[in-house]
């Protein structure tokens, strides 16, 4: 027992050392590659033809790149923090953003600049479901835009695009009078200055505009933050009433959703590496700076706290319900009931064969598509199903490992089938089941990382949100990895305790002979 | 006590029990013997319903066990079972194995169950192993615990299914003596066993099972010393039998000799004995074939593993022909040199009126 503890802590220590090593190598490699001399100076958009251009997945910027620079190689990334890291790491030569974002990026990172020349101009507009209600709301929004006093939109952009964060006040949306109900607004908070997370709330140009609209029309507002990829399905299935997320108007999108009149017009630009940028930050300074940005600034640690709670909540409930589900299903299939077995086999095949993201999306947008249901609840349901399937499999293996002789021994003494299972078989199956069960829980914690797709802000999504705000590529990722490790160790330890306690051969003599004089 | 009527058990491709009807009396200690695959274990397992009989009915006293309305768990509490593979609960200590069922099923207090359990364990010589787990015990010790576990329920009947077959030969004795003690207590017992001497020494009744039924049922003296049935006799004397029919003068000599040597090696008959059997067969056949025209011979060779003696019987048609008195001298001298005993009989009105019996000793 003692030996084992030492072994475990040694392993944990080694892991921590490896993590720090990775951190150092990543940081250094980024700086080294960035400090190499740039051979081909890029002065204009035409210089980018034939180069590698980064595009954020889900945006419509790639069409313009294809048109203007037909020989460019497009590479797709998930967020701006990734694009920035790729550019600095020279995985790409440029990436496309809109000018408002570009202005923030050059303030956040001293290694990059953007070409002033517009690649394309675009119009942003809110989107609405293609339904009667959606159309009505769209018309209301258009009326609101028309009645806005001259210059209001310009004032709004001046305010949110400025450098001074203190000026960027956001109206309190909880004060809105919901005379005609509450509107659900879908957005993706990784898109400063249009929408981003500050002090645990989604703020930004789009958010203030939405708040103004709601105040004007007499609605309350509920902002739902999700992955950009999730916004279109959320509107198409009327999960949300409208979306403001820097969505540019394209004919393709207009086929599936309704656009209002544009509320913002701008241009896209190409972000490139600055020539002869100075890289003189010390390693520790940059770590401290990253830590500061990730956790301290705007009290972002509170976001992480919430993310951890959400991840734990989903995991714990999925483990509890999944275990119960797996057990109940196992019990009904155990006696070879053919109907139960066929149904179970079908669902096992369905659930285990389906990528988790797809299962969650189907649950959220299709099965519970028209029901007002919390994403966390859907996540718990989804993971309960998959975890239940795993528990079923584990029980099948574990109980199967107990020999037929144990059943016969019990039956011959006069135990009923039920008593035999609970008293004789299950206790012997547990030692086979528990180690794998522990593994399943750990992998469950990790697999909850995808719930961002259904608007749940778990630990990973918080990491993404913070990255979208700080444009730190690695630090938040490594930070959440460390947190995941901590959670997994904690859970592993807990289940480990149970398996020690449940092992009948670990009992002391006094426990075996409890209440007996001898 | 136990009454069985027309019990039949068939599986998809075999029918180990075809038709068993028997009555077992209170206090009977019954050895169930017979060749393997003749349904001995199946009979035991049908009695406590671990196997559901295909047909037939079984009563324990006035209660019909085979009636679906009977609570079989209650019946099983009155019938202890000891398995070939022990089937101790591996996650429980020895004393817990013995205490578990009395506490759970008979409602005894833990103290009561412990006291009885320890007494039983001491009786089988395992009082000191009470807190060990089954995997820390030898096979013989496990089986003695299993006996104590069965006794802890104070059953009316104890069924022992080949209790020593899975044991190392050195451990058979300790388990047999535990069973012997048990037999003397007057409990009704059924033991399936292959140990003939043991069976003979403890029981007051023997079931010889063969051909899917109780082939012969009698006292140990009757079954072991004076078996009536042909199969019983062969089994008791552990006879290995080869039967050959020769219906033509031009029979395939080589293939018949091949059959004999295959029979010898299959039954691990010593090479010298095998040689003698073959030689004897050759000589007799040579003499018979030379002396007769319309040949039809039925040969039975029985080799007893117990006494290591082989007996060859030749029945043949035709006129009276006693080769022990007539025949060629060389063949006869070989014949007489090898046999311990030979006899000739003339059976009137038989298809094969001539019967020649030759005994080959060690």
CATH topology of the largest domain in chain A: MetI-like fold
Radius of gyration of chain B, in Å, reads 26 Å
Give the total of domains of chain A: 3
Q: What number of domains of chain B?
A: 2
Describe the oligomeric state of these chains in a short phrase: heterodimer
Q: What's the β-strand tally of chain B?
A: 15
The side-by-side strand order for the widest beta sheet of chain B comes to 6-7-8-3-9-10
Largest sheet of chain B: 6 strands, mixed
Number of strands of chain A: 14
Residue ranges of chain A: pLDDT <50 for 5 or more in a row? 34-38
Mean pLDDT of chain B equals 90
* Poorly predicted sequence stretches spanning 5 or more consecutive residues of chain B: none
Largest protein-protein interface: A-B, 26 and 35 residues
| CATH class descriptor of the largest domain in chain A | Mainly Alpha
Walkthrough of the structure:
The complex is a heterodimer of chains A (518) and B (362). In chain A, 58% of the residues lie in helices and 12% in strands. Chain A has 518 residues and is an alpha/beta fold. In chain A, a hairpin with a 2-residue loop joins strand 9 and strand 10. About 1% of the residues of chain A have low confidence. In chain B, a hairpin with a 7-residue loop joins strand 14 and strand 15. The longest helix of chain B has 21 residues. At the A-B interface, helix 15 and helix 16 of A face helix 2, strand 6, helix 3 and helix 4 of B.
């Amino acid at each position: 027992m003692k030996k084992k503890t030492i072994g475990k802590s040694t392993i944990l220590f080694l892991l921590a050392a490896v993590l720090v090593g990775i951190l150092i190598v990543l940081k250094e490699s980024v700086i080294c590659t960035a400090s190499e001399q740039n051979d081909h100076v890029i002065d204009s958009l035409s210089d980018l033809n034939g180069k590698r251009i980064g595009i954020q997945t889900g945006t419509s910027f790639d069409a313009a790149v294809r048109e203007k620079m037909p020989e460019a190689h497009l590479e797709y990334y998930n967020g701006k923090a990734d694009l920035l890291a790729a550019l600095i790491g020279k995985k790409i030569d440029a990436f496309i953003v809109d000018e408002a974002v570009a202005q923030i990026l050059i303030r956040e990172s001293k290694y990059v600049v953007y070409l002033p020349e517009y690649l394309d101009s675009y119009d942003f507009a809110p989107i609405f479901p293609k339904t009667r209600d959606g159309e009505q709301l769209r018309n209301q929004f258009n009326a609101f835009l028309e009645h806005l006093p001259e210059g209001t939109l310009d004032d709004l952009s001046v305010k949110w695009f400025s450098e001074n964060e203190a000026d960027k006040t956001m109206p309190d949306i909880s004060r809105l009078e919901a005379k005609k109900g509450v509107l659900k607004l879908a957005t993706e908070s990784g898109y400063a200055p249009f929408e981003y997370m500050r002090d645990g709330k989604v703020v930004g140009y789009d958010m203030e505009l939405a708040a103004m609209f709601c105040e004007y029309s007499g609605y309350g507002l509920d902002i739902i933050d999700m992955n950009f990829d999730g916004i279109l399905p959320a509107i198409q299935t009327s999960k949300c009433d409208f979306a403001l997320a820097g969505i540019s108007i394209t004919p393709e999108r207009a086929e599936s959703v309704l656009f209002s009149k544009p509320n913002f017009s701008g241009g896209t630009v190409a972000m490139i590496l600055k020539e002869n940028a100075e890289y003189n930050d010390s390693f520790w300074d940059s770590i401290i700076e990253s830590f500061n940005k990730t956790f301290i600034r705007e009290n972002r640690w509170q976001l992480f706290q919430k993310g951890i709670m959400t991840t734990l909540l989903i995991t714990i409930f999925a483990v509890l319900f999944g275990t119960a589900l797996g057990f109940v299903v196992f019990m009904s299939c155990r006696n070879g009931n053919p109907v139960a077995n066929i149904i179970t086999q079908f669902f096992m095949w369905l659930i285990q064969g389906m990528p988790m993201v797809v299962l969650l999306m189907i649950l959220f947008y299709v099965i519970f598509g028209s029901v007002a249901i919390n994403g966390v609840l859907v996540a718990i349901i989804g993971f309960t199903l998959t975890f239940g399937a795993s528990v079923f499999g584990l029980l099948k293996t574990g109980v199967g490992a107990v020999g037929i002789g144990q059943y016969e021994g019990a039956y011959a003494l006069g135990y009923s089938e039920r008593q035999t299972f609970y008293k004789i078989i299950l206790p012997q199956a547990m030692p086979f089941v528990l180690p794998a069960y522990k593994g399943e829980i750990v992998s469950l914690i990790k697999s909850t990382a995808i719930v961002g797709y259904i608007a749940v802000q778990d630990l990973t999504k918080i990491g993404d949100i913070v990255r979208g705000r700080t444009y730190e590529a690695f630090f938040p990722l490594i930070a959440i990895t460390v947190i995941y490790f901590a959670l997994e160790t904690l859970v592993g330890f807990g289940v480990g305790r149970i398996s020690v306690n449940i092992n009948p051969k670990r009992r002391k003599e006094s426990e075996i002979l409890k209440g007996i004089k001898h | 006590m136990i009454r069985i009527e027309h019990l039949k058990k068939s599986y998809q491709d075999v029918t180990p029990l075809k038709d068993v009807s028997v009555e077992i009396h209170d206090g009977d200690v019954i050895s169930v013997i017979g060749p393997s695959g003749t349904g001995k274990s199946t009979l035991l397992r049908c009695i406590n319903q671990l196997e559901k009989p295909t047909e037939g009915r079984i009563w324990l006293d006035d209660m019909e066990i085979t009636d679906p309305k009977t609570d079989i768990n209650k019946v099983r509490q009155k019938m202890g079972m000891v398995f070939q593979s022990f089937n101790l609960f591996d996650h429980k200590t020895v004393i817990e194995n013995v205490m578990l069922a009395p506490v759970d099923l008979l409602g005894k207090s833990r103290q009561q169950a412990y006291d009885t359990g320890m007494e039983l364990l001491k009786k089988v010589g395992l009082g000191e192993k009470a807190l060990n787990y089954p995997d820390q015990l030898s096979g013989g010790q496990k089986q003695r615990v299993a006996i104590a576990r069965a006794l802890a329920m104070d059953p009316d009947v104890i069924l022992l299914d080949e209790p020593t077959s899975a044991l190392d030969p050195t451990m058979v004795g300790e388990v047999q003596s535990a069973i012997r003690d048990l037999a003397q207590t007057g409990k009704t017992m059924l033991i399936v066993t292959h140990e003939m001497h043991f069976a003979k020494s403890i029981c007051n009744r023997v079931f010889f099972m063969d051909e899917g039924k109780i082939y012969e049922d009698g006292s140990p003296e009757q079954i072991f010393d004076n078996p009536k049935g042909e199969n019983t006799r062969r089994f008791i004397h552990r006879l290995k039998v080869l039967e050959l029919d020769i219906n033509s003068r031009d029979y395939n000599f080589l293939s018949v000799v091949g059959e004999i040597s295959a029979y010898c090696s299959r039954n691990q008959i010593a090479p010298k004995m095998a040689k003698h059997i073959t030689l004897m067969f050759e000589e007799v056949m040579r003499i018979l074939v030379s002396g007769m025209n319309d040949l039809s011979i039925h040969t039975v060779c029985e080799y007893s593993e117990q006494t290591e003696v082989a007996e060859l019987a030749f029945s043949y048609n035709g006129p009276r022909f006693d080769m022990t008195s007539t025949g060629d001298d060389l063949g006869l001298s070989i014949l007489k040199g090898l046999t311990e005993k030979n006899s000739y009989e003339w059976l009137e009105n038989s298809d094969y009126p001539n019967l020649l019996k030759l005994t080959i000793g060690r």
